[in-house]
Design brief:
globular, Rossmann fold, alpha/beta, 2 domains, two-stranded antiparallel sheet
């Protein structure tokens, strides 16, 4: 059950031709402030002339029920019916909330993702996970629903700041670490020159994610491996979102999560020390800047892991590695072990 996707420069023409065949009653485009300015002009002429446009605030801070209310109110005001289409033009945050609103509006209307960031193109827009943050917890409210298409156009990546590009690359690394050791070694050889291989890298990550999702759409077993780095990473991201001046990008948090969770796997004798050392050396070389939190905040961050969606019976369950290229899931860890991993990160980076 994988998403239909089109990867390439011709994706805009594909969209225009597909829309003519589908004959949707209405087409609504969802953008944020950034994608309205930099991305919407690139696709506007490929959309029906009478399409509607909704603009929402940009950023994880606005992935909440208040923004959903804004979207649903617009759809209702315009009398958008169940035969309409919502086109989500943006990064992972926008596609998450746009897909969620589409899947719940009048019990569901069709939607298309047009991801504009590297993170969204390689990970966030695939797999049918949709949702919003609630009471400070990442993706606490959501549904599973697949878009009709995911249209991946490399042109958008040229609009990204360097920081956004690197944040997305974290998910590329994750996919190789959990499922393709050979590709991880290829990434190592690229050093920081990965931007010259973006088409190949994007396709490889999409392929890995879709292969996993096809086997386990509702995340009962294998799909949990895609969460490597996300238990600790989401906790750090959620904690820092409480302080807007300290907020970090999703991919930046996942890098810390992968470092901490790989260290925990090594301490549990799951992951060979040599593999951990290679992972640590590579990630800290590509991402040398330390994510700042104090030793006094470690306990608060660790407690957020109790809300991770993979947990059962209040037991923290990690997806982590047993070797480079092979992941395991449902590995139980304690709050104390999470704290140790965070202290290790602070001390050694």
């Amino acid at each position: 059950m994988e998403s239909n996707f089109f990867l390439g420069q011709d994706s805009f023409h594909f969209l225009a031709n597909w829309l003519k065949l589908q004959k949707y009653s209405q087409v609504v485009v969802l953008v944020d402030r950034n994608t309205k300015q930099f991305c919407y002009p690139l696709i506007k002429d490929f959309l029906p002339e009478n399409h509607f446009l909704i603009e929402i605030p940009a950023g994880e801070l606005h992935k909440n029920l208040q923004t959903c209310h804004q979207i649903w109110a617009k759809l209702t005001t315009w009398a958008i019916d169940r035969k309409a289409l919502l086109v989500n033009l943006g990064g992972g945050v926008l596609c998450d909330i746009g897909g969620f609103c589409a899947a719940t509006y009048k019990r569901g209307i069709d939607f298309v993702h047009i991801p504009t960031t590297l993170l969204a193109q390689v990970d966030a827009c695939f797999g049918g996970k949709l949702g919003i943050d609630f009471q400070g917890f990442k993706n606490q409210i959501g549904v599973f629903a697949l878009p009709k298409h995911v249209l991946v156009n490399p042109t958008f990546l040229h609009t990204l700041p360097k920081r956004e590009l690197y944040a997305g690359f974290a998910e590329v690394i994750k996919h190789s670490l959990i499922a393709d050791a050979e590709h991880f070694q290829f990434l190592v050889t690229l050093e920081r020159q990965f931007s010259t291989h973006l088409h190949e890298i994007v396709y490889h990550s999409i392929k890995i994610k879709n292969q996993i999702v096809e086997q386990d759409f509702k995340e009962q077993h294998l799909r949990k491996t895609l969460n490597f780095g996300h238990t600790v990473g989401h906790a750090i991201e959620s904690f820092l979102l409480q302080f807007p001046e300290r907020a970090i990008l999703h991919g930046e948090a996942i890098v810390v999560g992968m470092l901490c969770e790989a260290w925990l796997a090594m301490k549990r004798n799951l992951l060979p020390k040599t593999d951990f050392e290679q992972i640590w050396a590579y990630l800290t070389h590509i991402y040398p800047q330390k994510i700042v939190f104090s030793p006094e905040e470690v306990s608060e961050i660790a407690k957020l892991c109790l809300q991770d969606k993979k947990n059962t019976h209040r037991q923290i369950l990690l997806a982590t590695l047993e070797q480079i290229g092979k992941a395991v899931f449902d590995v139980p860890v304690t709050l104390g072990e999470i704290e140790q991993a965070l202290y290790f990160y602070l001390k050694n980076l």
